[in-house]
Amino acid sequence: MQHTHTIEKQTGKAFILNKGDILTVTDPMGMQVSDMVLFNRHDHGEKISSGKSLDFEESILLTTGNYLWSNRSRKMMKILEDTNGRNDFLLAPCSKETFEIMYSHEGYHPSCLENLTKNLEPMGLSQDEIPTAFNIFMNVQFDAKGKISVLPPTSKPGDYVKFEAMMDLLVCLTACSAEDSNGGSFKPIQYSVTPSSSYSQL
Known about the structure:
Blueprint (H helix, E strand, L loop, with lengths): L3 E4 L4 E6 L4 E6 L6 E7 L2 E5 L2 H8 L9 E3 L5 E8 L4 E2 L7 H8 L8 H9 L13 E3 L2 E4 L5 E4 L7 E7 L3 E6 L14 E6 L1 H4 L3
Antiparallel strand pairs: 1-14, 2-13, 3-12, 3-14, 4-5, 4-9, 4-13, 6-7, 7-12, 8-9, 10-11
């Protein structure tokens, strides 16, 4: 039985996947980014690598048919379906410093790095061990000189990305907390897990 979990706005959630499980990440209301980090469940030293993924997939934008790779050059996930088609590794998870340096924000502001840290610390991981996330539904554009700009996501209500776990994984997802990344508003993210045994029978 597939159960849909909701990650409330500006929060996160960590969970485990078995090899072969199918993870579906959905944007229920549209225009909401989700940061995703991955670790080998049995050895947290192996984790998702933006550099390896861009290198081996030979693309800045990753979508259906692409793999997400680890820092040890092993496949961690395969993207099976992607109804939006705009995901990237171009920016690090937003942090307290992001809002101070880039937005001159003073005082507390929720961030993806905080939410990743908060949910991964009980698993024995520290903030310094969190890699650059795979930014699901993120819309980063760049010009001929390489100047980047963050535009509102193009995802519509109900858009989703479906991943297959290529190894046993520890996963953490967020509902992103940066105004610019989400078109100026904050919304929830949903996910569901289909066990490998039941997916193979579909």
